[in-house]
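Submission sheet (multi-component)
Chains listed below:
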Amino acid sequence: MVHALEDIHRLLRPGGDLIDIHPVLEAPLVEVYQGGKVIFTESWPDYSGEDYRQAEQALAQVVARRLFVIDGSGEFDFLTYGSSVAELRNFLAEAGAYEERPKDDAVVARESELFAHVEEIMQAAGEGAEVADHEKARITRLKPI
Amino acid sequence: MTVRPDPDNNETTALFDLAHFSGQHVLEIGCGDGRLTWRYAARAAHVTAIDPFAEAIRRAKENLPSELRYRVELHHIAFKDFAAASEPSAFDMAILSWSLC
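Outcome: structure written.
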């Protein structure tokens, strides 16, 4: 990751901007919405956030080496809604979300249990209920030095 | 049956608060299917968007809005290879869109 940031430093003109967007080190949530209100929320099972921790460390390293300086930052909520559990899970799988490492059987079982519960809640909530993946993300602007 | 990523545009709002695209030559690293690219590209002078996954770039090329055709270049390439083949100081802005991990 640090090597990639060094390459970016070389590709940017002096005074240019590097914009980094990545999730914060906090487990994403599975939520169920009905009528614009959250009626269920629970963390994704077995979320480690290890990749994002490494991304934070890489950014800290290039700032400490005075390759870049942080020039601004913010946080935002990123929600992806699906009208069914299967649809949302397929979408996230295609996007490569939460696939950083193979899952063991216990995690797969916990996920299956969670999503079976979510499906029950959605059925009980009736038409218009949506399931959402809710992540918090950080955006940072860095300037090459 | 629909999936709606960020329908409230929280990501775009946060991006436009921090990044000023007017006249900028932008490199987006890890553009995926172009979901974020389409949201800012009209404001930039030119966008080079790359992704190492062939399927993602195939979908991006399929989804590229016609009005952005001359403004956005999409390449299936790993960043390491792209960087090795690129001139220094070639871009005004680089965006790591959920890809530094």
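Remark: DSSP finds four helices and five strands in chain A.
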